[in-house]
## 1
Amino acid sequence: MSLHRPYRLVLVVTALCVAGCARSTPPESPGPESATTPAVASAPAEPSTAAPTPDTAATLVANLWQLQSATDGAGQSIAAFFPTPDKPMGVQFADGRLSVTGGCNRMNAGYQLLDSAQMQVSQGMSTMMACPPLLANADAAFAKFLTGTLQVAVEGEAGAPHLRLAAADGSTLTFSGTPTPETRFGGPGTRAFLEVSPEPCVAPAPSAPPCLMVRDRHFDEKGLASGTPGEWRALPEGIEGYAPVAGEQHVVRVKRFEQAGTAGNAPTEHFVLDLIIETRTVQ
């Protein structure tokens, strides 16, 4: 091509490139057309993962999850997850950690929602108590499953949701959810310690929870008993999640929730079992 072609052609080509080419840095010596065209910055790169949806994150924390089924990659049931038919296992989510319920050892691990369909589970921790074989196998099955990246799906309606967790090998756990006490009572409870008498009080009705005789206990930061126990008093509604055992006396750690009274009545207390911390055999 001759170097003496009219300069007009160069300007036309430059203008067409500015209008139709991919966005790029303007030439160092822009022509008249490009001089009036503002530079357009490149759009920022999209993040590799989307933020978790509020519904998924909130629903996980707002419910206690009871295990309903466990299958391997071939769709076969995994019996190890169901050590005792009367006490199903489950999981609970709170403060960035998940814990296994219903097992022998206390197990928990950190978790993070990568998006609304993926959960990253960190290295877990567990107590090391000797357990009956069936419970030990269940603990081991949960410890193996709750690692790495899991696929997560929350389905169903509020108040009765369902949770499905799936591992990379195709094994899948499904859970049914029930609202936590914090969800039901509209806020966090306060920690308390109660000693439960082996002698129950008279229940207000045959179908009512067992009426318990309890007294307040106090422990210091090191877990040592301190202060003087309170007076014995009746709990007609008992302690949610706690069942007395014949021949045993317990000290329990509970969550205490206060409910506003109705029609001018005084507020009422509701206690939920957190942990049995002492057991004493009685005759």
## 2
Amino acid sequence: MYTWGELKNKQPNAVRMLTNSIAKNRIAHAYIFEGGRGTGKKEVSIQLAKSYFCTKRIGVEPCNSCIECKRIESGNHPDVLLLTPDGLSLKKEQIKDLQREFAKKSVEAKGKIYIIEHADKMTVQAANSLLKFLEEPNGRTIAMLLTEQVQKMLPTILSRCQILNFRPLTPELLFQELLEKNAPTVLAKIVASLTNNINDALAIISDDWFAQARNIVIQLNEVLVNRSHHALLFLHEHWLPHFIEKEQLNVGLDLLLLWHKDLLYIQIGEQNNLIFIDQKDLLEVQAMRFSQKRIADQLTIILEAKKRLDANVNPQLLMEQLVLKLQEG
């Protein structure tokens, strides 16, 4: 349950346009909310429905306590319909069912709202049926089409909707949202630098493999600082058995990149930007041993390893060469 103020922090442009429309009683008849997963499209669509039907609204803000708000929040409002793909696509019959439902007199005098998730997954027949519905709605209706791939939608549908872009969440906003969802601080800080999708971030944090991966990266750097002659042994005993798949190894390299960025933050006095927030002591020890140029070179070495991984270089050979290069200087 959100407020417009909270949603505006995440999507300032889209929310500003919508709240202005609510305040002026000029809500459009059709919107397309376009943006990546986890950017708040569905939350905003639900909030707009609440503001439209709320009986105790203060300004643009729904009360979240009246019967209308509660029914929308629970997904049981008779005049707010949510449509999702049936299998891999949205089918013509689903749109026809929607049209039949909307042909009925609305329970509330205001009209009806329909929200279509993954609108880009409509079949051609479904899209053409929706187009007719957009052109000739029954009574007062508001459509909200949610999509991650607006380029896959029919131009004729795009031309009949107001398109609002939902930007990826910034690392700072994603970090705060993860904390609000009780994610461990040390993991939330790192994951917020690896993805801008709240759903993906939560999935990563819930995976024990990732927490172990983070620990192995920290241990590798500790070995490189204090026991460099054991680095290859550590690689074979701990790193390679954990980072088995190509995607897993790519995550490991991303974590190494973040570690070396933290080394630069230490050197330029920006400790507040650290990603490995609980490893400041080890980072300071390692940062004292290298110049900024050397750390920049190490970042380049890791980036090159990521490119070689994409080119299907043998993972064991790739990591052995990477460790040896990181030991240089």
## 3
Amino acid sequence: MKRTCQIIAIISFLFCSVTAAAQQYVYTPGDSIRVEKALEHCIKCDKLDCVTESTLLFLGLPYVASTLDSCNSERIVINTREYDCTTFIETVSAIAITAKRGGRSFSDFCHTLQSLRYRNGICNGYSSRLHYISQWITDSKKQGIIEEVTGDSHTATQRLNLNFMSTHPASYKQLKENSNLVAEIEKFEQPFRGIDVKYIPKSALNGSPTLLDIENGDILALVTSIKGLDVTHVGFAHWIDSKLHLIHASSGKGATIIDEQTLYDYMRTKKSCLGVRVFRIIKGQK
């Protein structure tokens, strides 16, 4: 009996699933260790750009899509071993925000990540996840976590009409398996229809840091012309010799990278990309 209990304890440790305030977190011990090391590094770092410092800790990790959809029901998945573009942004942002607040524990990080990923910070099923970047930033702005800093100069306008998920349910595992979720998703898309947002057109992205008013570590959302979507990719701004580059989880390269191409050159080859919206973690975190 003692031997059996020991085996159960080991299995539980290797594949942790922690419930706090009725919310289940799914992660491995390696995830918690990696996060706490990153928090310690950021807190000790004397550089102002905590976001870029965080991205550098996760470079070279593999690109894997749909890592949040591995559970049969919605769980708060923390996976620091592999990324898609959105989970990379979420993880790095959560580390930087937690560090700015003086948080040092994995639990502090989990709370921040949950507040970024879910509407009003509450995980209550698949539809509570902020699936679109426009939803993500609106909720983060309301919480005082992230602000939009897309400048007024060199900007164009996009009229949002979010409906891609509700009109393409077969493209999403959960919607394909549960048609009742489609109506829920559409309910949260509706407030983001007929709204105009500004973006910097891709033709202007060869400008200087001063001209574009983009800082290292800013979140760049690549605005798209694809019907029903707002954004198709996200990454972090990184200036190299006064040229704007992207730190991102790249499906083309299969890893998290500092892109060798300038963002201007990267976007010139992508016809559906219109430009970028710019977001910044609010410096005075509480």
